[in-house]
Amino acid sequence: MSALTQEKVKIALIKLGEKLGEPAKYLESAMHTAEASNPWFTADNINKSILSFSKMLHKSDVEDWFTTAKFTSKPKKVGLILAGNIPLVGLHDVLAVLATGNIALIKLSSADDKLIRAVLNLLVEIEPELRVKIEYVERLKDFDAVIATGSNNSSRYFDYYFSKVPNIIRKNRNSVAILTGEETEEDIANLGFDIFDYFGLGCRNVSKIYFPSGYDIAKLYQGIEHFLPVINHFKYQNNYDYNKSIYLVNAAKHFDNGFLLLKKDENLSSPLAVLFYEEYNSLEEVESKLTKQEENIQCIVTKASLHLKHFNFGESQHPKLWDYADNVNTIEFLNAI
Question: Does 220 share its domain with 115?
Answer without folding.
Answer: no
